[in-house]
């Protein structure tokens, strides 16, 4: 049994990544079933906007966990709804923090946030954070992710956000220090907005902007600690035995190493294993062999698991349990 897929010191988090169409969702669902069958309370979550987790499990899913089997729950997140919810939360916080500036009509600036680059990534990260915050409810949390590029940007966000937030806290601290210096000369700065009086804060403990920055940093640091902890998190890449998926997996491996996110397993899906090879398939078989050899040489120290090409599409719990058994091991 692959111990790094099992919970240790709390819950375990598994991110399944890969190109569209390589069998990522099937692998995530199969692994979830195998773990639940071994007695681990498992949640499998699709955060891919093109959901097909429900199709693979042959059930209808929503953004609330649905019980599939004993110890197995599944859900599909509404990413468009998450983005809208994230924007509303962001807008509400900004209006609260800068309410003394409403006289200059900030509404139009808040509306622009809806079209800002990176909103989808931040909304996805927020969804992951909320699930991880409730992680103790589960033994294992399995994420079926969007295509590799978006997923890598989301997984890189916590570290990048920490750098930016630390810099913003530093800048905000300098602003408050200057305000305090001005107060000593001119006294407190006060504003009347819509009949209410507001004092321009100069102390960190009173400043809503600083409070929000520190709160956000704490939330992001929590996610960062979870996804970079090899005792907590494992990324599982899924690929087909072809050159393009191999190159994409290699780029993902390098990117995850850069951000110190544990990468332990590669599932090579749809491998042709034939006793007698028809002449028309010889070239295909040889190409697969070359990819498998390259994978062994490029990913030293990474576990490689081969899933054969089956005669029929692996759907339904019986098929998935069989595949999951191969992935998790005995």
From TrEMBL:
<protein>
    <submittedName>
        <fullName>ArsA family ATPase</fullName>
    </submittedName>
</protein>
<feature type="domain" description="ArsA/GET3 Anion-transporting ATPase-like">
    <location>
        <begin position="12"/>
        <end position="328"/>
    </location>
</feature>
<dbReference type="InterPro" id="IPR025723">
    <property type="entry name" value="ArsA/GET3_ATPase-like"/>
</dbReference>
<dbReference type="InterPro" id="IPR016300">
    <property type="entry name" value="ATPase_ArsA/GET3"/>
</dbReference>
<comment type="similarity">
    <text>Belongs to the arsA ATPase family.</text>
</comment>
<dbReference type="InterPro" id="IPR027417">
    <property type="entry name" value="P-loop_NTPase"/>
</dbReference>
<dbReference type="Pfam" id="PF02374">
    <property type="entry name" value="ArsA_ATPase"/>
</dbReference>
<dbReference type="GO" id="GO:0005524">
    <property type="term" value="F:ATP binding"/>
</dbReference>
<dbReference type="GO" id="GO:0016887">
    <property type="term" value="F:ATP hydrolysis activity"/>
</dbReference>
